[in-house]
Structures are given as C-alpha cells and as structure tokens.
Amino acid sequence: MSSVEPTPRGTGTGKKPRTPRADALRNRDRLVQAARAAFAASDGTVPLEGIAREAGVGIGTLYRHFPTREALVEAVYAAELDDVAGSAPALLEALPPDAALRAWMERYAAFVATKRGMADTLRAGWASGRIATPATRERITTAVATILASGAEAGSLRSDVEPYDVTVMLLGIFLVSTADDASDRTGRLIDLVMDALRPTAAG
Fold first, then answer.
1. Which residues does 174 contact at the CB level (< 8 Å), separation at least 6?
2. What is residue 4's predicted lDDT score, i.e. its pLDDT?
3. Torsions phi, psi of 34, nearest 5?
4. What is the pLDDT of residue 130?
5. Which of 108, 110, 106, 107 is nearest to 41 (CA)?
6. Is residue 185 part of a domain?
7. C-beta separation of 101 from 143 below 8 A
8. pLDDT tens digits, residue range 46-74?
9. 154-172 pLDDT, tens per residue?
10. The domain spanning residue 105 has which CATH number?
C-alpha cells in the first residue's frame, strides 16, 4: 500500500491563481468608463445594452464582469469615490491651495452628478446589504481637511473651519443643483463657498 497521502484540493500543484488577461482588464475598464458617462448623463434607469455598446463589447462580456446591475453600479461608485477622494494631493502639487480647493469642488460636483443615474440602485443595494455601504463622507471630509490645512498654512484659506461642515455644505449644494439640473448655479454657489473659506481682511 502506498504511503503517499492525497494532495489536498487546490494545493501542491505549484500553480498560482490565474490572473485576469490584459484584454479582460481592458474590457472591464472600458465598461466602467462607459457606465460612468452614462450614469452621469441620465437621471433615470440606464440600459445595460447601451453601456456595453459604448464600451465596444457585447452584453455577454458585460455580464461576465458584472453579473448584476448592482455589481456594475458598485464598481462605478467605487471608481468615482476613489478619484474624488484621492485627488487632493495631486491638486495641491499642481495648484495653490485655494485654487486646488476650487478644482476639487468641481470634481466633487461631478461625482455627485454621476450618482444621479444610479441613485435608486445604490439606495436599494445599501438597504438590502447587497452593496457594501462605503464611508463616503469620511473620505470626502479627509480630502477637504487636507486642502484646508494646506491653505491655512499658506494663509489663503481659513484655519477655523471644520472640514465636515464644508462637506455637508457642498453636499447640500450639489444635491439641489443636480436635482434642478442647474450646473450654472453650482458654479455660482461654489464661488460663494470659496468666498466664505478665505480669510477676512484684518481691521
């Protein structure tokens, strides 16, 4: 009788788990980008067939990457949140703090607009637990705090402002402006917020 024990399933083969092929990763990225554009442009349900067509792939490819609408929405939301929350350091490297904050606010406004076309799916997914609830406000507030701190050090932004207050103020502006489809009003209100965040003249 052989004394060799059977190799446990999934071990002992010397093979690493397969990584996605480059073309599969490109297809996934194209689908996410097409979905981001589609959700930002629509305030209703976005047909998945149209997203696949814009990405240059078939609907079967979309479903291989994202078996449900919720999975696609979650991927788009995560990509948008990563972009806006992680953009503060790069903006501060390229621009003075006050200009960086103004540019970041525009990016945040675009993020809120993108959620318009997937709001119902997000709310239903969060309520049911199918979609993980992200710490969105915490990540946004961290970005705000980073820029405010840099601006306070440079003397171009106030040092006595709570970052979370700025987050709440901006969210209120963007939700109302998005609902009214009033992008011109968004810009004016951002300018008012910037005025409030600049130091007042002494005297």
1. 108, 109, 112, 113, 186
2. 42
3. -65, -40
4. 66
5. 110
6. yes
7. no
8. 889 999 999 999 999 999 999 988 889 88
9. 999 999 999 999 999 998 8
10. 1.10.357.10
| Domain-embedded: residue 131 | yes
Domains: count for the chain = 1
Write out the residue range of the structural domain in which residue 103 sits. 69-197
Domain annotation covers residue 162: yes
* CA angle centred on 174, ends 169 and 179, rounded to 5°: 135
The residues, any chain, with a CB within 8 Å of residue 114's CB and separated by 6 or more, are 36, 39, 40, 76, 80
Residue 5 belongs to some domain of the structure: no
φ, ψ dihedrals at 17, nearest 5°: -55, 140
> Is residue 203 pLDDT above 50, yes or no?
no
Full DSSP string of the chain: ---PPPPPTTSSS-PPPPPPPHHHHHHHHHHHHHHHHHHHH-SSPPPHHHHHHHHTS-HHHHHHH-SSHHHHHHHHHHHHHHHHHH-HHHHHHHS-HHHHHHHHHHHHHHHHHHHGGGHHHHHHHHHHTSSPPP-HHHHHHHHHHHHHHHHHHHTSS-SS--HHHHHHHHHHHHHHHHHHT-HHHHHHHHHHHHHHHSPPPP-
